[in-house]
Amino acid sequence: MAIGTKTKTFLLMNSEEKNIILEAQNLSVGYTSKDGSSTIAKDINFSILKGELVGMVGANGIGKSTLLRTLTGMQKALSGSIFLKNKDLTEYSSFQLATQLSVVLTEPPASKNLSVLELVSLGRQPYTNWIGTLTKEDKKAINYALDITETSTLANRKCFELSDGQLQRVAIARAFAQDTPIIILDEPTTHLDIYHRAYVLKLLKKLAAESHKTILFSTHEIDLAIQLTNKMLVMSKDENYFNDPCKLISEGRFNALFPKETIDFDANTGRFVVKR
Amino acid sequence: MQISQTYKLHFLILSIALIAAFLMNLSMGSVSIPIDEIVSIFFGNGATKETWQYIIMDYRLPKAFTAMLAGGGLAVAGLLMQTLFRNPLAGPFVLGLSSGASLGVAILILGASAFGGFLGTLLLSQWSLVIASALGSFLVLLAVLAVTFKIKDTMAILIIGLMFGSVTTAVVSVLSYFSNAEQLQQYIFWSFGSLGNQSWQGVLILSICFLAGIILSLMSSKSLNGLLLGENYAKSMGLHIKKTTFTIILATSILAGGITAFVGPIAFVGLAVPHLVRQFYKTSNHLILLPAVLICGSLLMLVCDTLAQLPFSEFTLPINAITSLIGAPVVIWLLVRKRKLFF
After folding, report:
1. Binary contact (A111, B228; C-beta < 8 A)
2. Cβ contacts (< 8 Å) between B278 and chain A: which residues?
3. Structural domains of chain B ordered from first start
4. B2, B86, B218 member nearest A111 (Cβ)
5. CB distance B228–A123 less than 8 Å?
6. B154 pLDDT band (50/70/90 cuts)?
7. pLDDT value at position A276?
8. Is the pLDDT at B4 greater than 50, yes or no?
9. Which end of chain A is more exposed for a tag (fewer CB within 10 A), N or C?
10. SS3 A83
C-alpha cells in the first residue's frame, strides 16, 4: 500500500469488520455553488456488510438521491468520508470504481432503440477491450444476468417495446452484468404497480442472497422494505438511523419520518396508517 | 455490445450497390461512356476514344471519389452528433457547424480583397479553404461544447446551435454587403456545393481528413455505445465523458469541416442517412452502424451526383439542391411510417 493513502488500519479486526464493504463516517452531502455550500443531509453513519440488502427511506427532498449520487462518486461529499473496501472512495479512479460499484438510476436509457441484449451487454464495458469485443466470459456473465432477472425471453426486444416493470428488470440485469460487489439503485420501485414493486424488491433480495452482492437502494415502499431488507437507513430532518428494521421499529424511528398529524406508523403491523 | 445477428448479407448488398453506383456515376453525364470502356480504362488498356480516357481519369474519377468521401464522411458526422447529443434531429448542419465553415470561407473569399494582390491569391489556394472552413466549424463546435458543459438540456444546446447559425449568417451578409459582385458569386457558388473540378491533390487532402475522422470515430465506437445509456450510466461504467466528448467533436469537425471546405455545405446527408440505416440494421452497436452509415452515405451521394449532372444533358444542378430534394421526403416518409425517430 502506498504511503500517504488514507487506508484504514484496524487494531482489532474481528470477523464483522472484515466483512464491511461500504462505510460512511460523519458524512455530509449536498451541493457546492459560488455562494457556498448547501448541506442537504448530515451526520450520516453506517457500515454495510458484504451480501446485505439495505433499504434507504425518507421523505421527498430529504437527500436520498444526493446521498446515492455521493456514494457512487458522481458528486463530492461536503465533509466526512466514505470507505469502499476500507479504501477512501476518492482514491478510486472512475475506471476502478466501475468494477466495484454499479448503478441503476431513475432515468431510462437515453436511447430506447437499444435491444435488451445490447443494453445488458453494455454492462460489460469496464472489462471489454478498446473496441468492445465480448469474450466468452463476458457472454456468460450477460446470459447469467438475463437468467437471474428472468429477462432472457426479452433479449431481442427493443427498449421502447417494454413495460416499466420489464425495463426495470432489464436495468437491474445490466447492473448485474457489470459484475460488481456493490449495486446501488435509486428508487427502483417508482412507476411500478404493487406486484412489480414486490417483484423487484424480492429480486434484489435474491441477488443479495444468491450471489452475495451488497445492494443498497432508496425507496418509498417502507412496509415492503421492512419485510425484505437486512438493514435500513432511515433519514429524517434531525437525525439518521441505521439498523435492523426490527430494531428501528422497536426504537420508534419510523415515527420521525413524516408529520404525525397526517400519517402515523403502526409498530404492530409495520405499516403507516392515515390519521382520521 | 453483443450482436444478435450478423450483418454480412446487408454489407454484401450495400457493397455491390456501391460498386454499381460508382460505375453508373462514371458512365453517365453530358457524355455517356459505356461501362466496358470504363473497365478497360481501369485495367490500363485505354479507351477507344482519347477524350473518354481524359474525361474519366481527370474529371469523373476524382469527382466520384469526392462524392463517396463527402457522402460517407457527412453521414458518419451526423451519426456521431446524434449519439453525442442523444437527439435524433442533431447533425453538423443543425448545430451550426456548416454555418461556421461557411463563415470561415466567407471571411476568406470576401475578405481576401482586404489583403489584395499576391497575398489575396495565396489565401485562396485549396489548402487555405480547407483550413478556413475547418477552423470555422471547429470554433463553432468549441462554442457549442463550452455551452454543453454548462447546460445539461440537449434541446437548449440545439437552440444555441441554431443561434450560432443565424449569427454566422448575419456576419456573412454584412461581409457580402461590402464585397464586389465577383467575390459574391464565388462565395455563392461555393455555398451551392460542388463535387466536380477536384484535382487529384484535392482528393488526397480530402482523403486524409476523411481517414483521420473515420479512425477517430471507430476508436470512439465503444464510448458511443456507452453514451446510448445516457451520460450518468456511461460515467458509472468508467467512461471518461470529457475525453470522449472531445474526441467525438474533433472527429466531427475534421470530417464536416474538411468536406464542407472542398464541396460546400451539403445538407441532409448527415441527418437522413443514419435514420435510413437504422431502418435496415436492427442494432445500436456503433461498430456495425459506423461502417453501414459510411457506405450508405457514399452510395446516396453517388446517386445524388448522378442525378445532379442530368444525364444526357449539358446542365449540372447544384448538389445541395439534389440532396435536399431527396433527403427531405425520405425523412418525412420515415416520420410518417414510424411516427418516431430514434437515435
Report:
1. yes
2. 113
3. 8-338 (1.10.3470.10)
4. B86
5. no
6. low
7. 75
8. no
9. C
10. strand
The conformation of residue B58, written as its DSSP 8-state character, comes to I
CB pairs under 8 A between A and B: 109
- Joined together, the cell numbers standing for residue A272 give 403507516
Per-residue pLDDT of A199-210, as tens digits, reads 999 999 999 999
Selecting from B2, B218, B236 the residue whose C-beta is nearest the C-beta of A98 gives B236
Grid cell for residue A93: 479512479
- Alpha-carbon distance of A78 to B146, in angstroms, equals 27
Helices (H), chain B: 8-27, 35-42, 50-54, 61-84, 97-115, 117-123, 126-150, 154-177, 181-192, 200-219, 221-227, 231-236, 241-263, 269-280, 286-308, 319-338
Cα Rg of chain B (Å, integer):
20
Q: What is the pLDDT of residue B138?
A: 76
Name the residue facing B287 among A112, A125, A131 (closest C-beta). Answer: A131
- B69-83: average pLDDT: 94
Q: What is the pLDDT of residues B265-299, one digit of tens each?
A: 887 888 889 988 888 888 899 999 999 999 999 99
> Residues of A numbered 102-141 whose beta carbons fall under 8 angstroms of chain B's beta carbons: which are they?
102-103, 105, 107, 109-115, 117-123, 125-126, 128, 130-132, 134, 139
**B309 has pLDDT over 80:** yes
- In which residue ranges of chain A is pLDDT below 70? 1-17
Pairwise CB contact (< 8 Å): A94 & B342: no
**Cα–Cα distance for residue pair B184/B176, rounded to 1 Å:** 6
Q: In this predicted structure, what is the pLDDT of residue B219?
A: 94
Domain parsing of chain A, residue ranges:
108-179
Asked if the Cβ–Cβ distance from B228 to A139 is below 8 Å, we say no
State the pLDDT at residue A6: 45
Nearest to B266 by CA among B190, B166, B335: B190
Task: Return mean pLDDT, chain B.
Answer: 84
Distance from CA of A94 to the nearest CA of B (A): 5
Residue from the list B1, B236, B284 with its beta carbon closest to the beta carbon of A113: B284
Q: Record the pTM.
A: 0.88
